[in-house]
Write a structure and sequence with these properties.
elongated, disordered N terminus, Protein Transport Mog1p, Chain A
Amino acid sequence: MLRKQPIRILPLLSLIAMLVLSSCAPLIQPVTTSGTAPTPILTEVKGGVDNPNVFVDPAVLQAALLQVLAAHDTENLQQWMTDPFFTGTWRGDRFDTSPADALKSLYADQLGAEIHLEPVKNADLKALLGGTDPLSIPSGEAGVMYAFLVSGWGKDGRDEAILFITLQADDNLKWHGWMQIRGGFSGARLGGIQPYKNDALGFSLYLPKGCEVPDPNASAVLFLAPGVGHPDENRAGAFISVEPANGRTAEQVATQLAEKTKVEMGAGYTGAAITVMDIDGEPAYSVSGLPGQDVNRQLFMVHNDLLYSLMFVPDSPRAAAYSQMEDMYAMIVNTFHFTK
């Protein structure tokens, strides 16, 4: 356990030099949270009075956050948070809110009853974000200086989150917010990732490690999860095709498919629900629970008057490969970027 000791205020020039030399991703060397928990708080003497909630070392603040998040220690968390506090979802909504409201959402919606957060080692956040500097995601006025990725986020522990650390005017560090990545994108839970780029079709993405990519043709490519045989209930697969949009929007294509399916399936059918998200600056429409040889999920985007159609199988919780499909879907959706 670390001993509490007075800290020395770093000279401004030394602090600036240290920050310039640090890289964007990973911005903080991961630290372990197992074993005896270190004393997470550094003490600073101001006017002869100890202040037990002052941090100057980002690695120490990182370790402290993971410990108190798992312990549901909202009292300490609120003291370590900025006001306003940033919350968001990758390729979803982002908000500035109060620390109190953020903590309510944190334990009601973001984290499960059993919390096992781990820092993701060597995560190249800028590459995973398609070239976006993670420090630029919150408002520039926030003064975010560090960002690190953790796994084990979400109600079922399958998500990831980027935690943002800001440098205050008094040279102390505060937790400024989180951005949830639904399903994750680092591959930490899956054993790794592999990049894929198709210049002819105009996109790049990451896949779970071990996926197969049979020879693509001029308008489509197939991705197969680890396994044997064709994509079906026992092996997940994803199919991406590109064709001229001819003036159609992604919303029109998705809506037409959903309505047609509901009519054909008749009363009692509860599938064809549409989810809207933003993927690399374009609106994307995902239609779930579609009937076919295997129940499938389809997603549509239009970019440069090209219609990108993505199909994922099997989209049935009863299928053996459903979790495998969900992992492939999350990885592709979270890391898809247009290249032309």
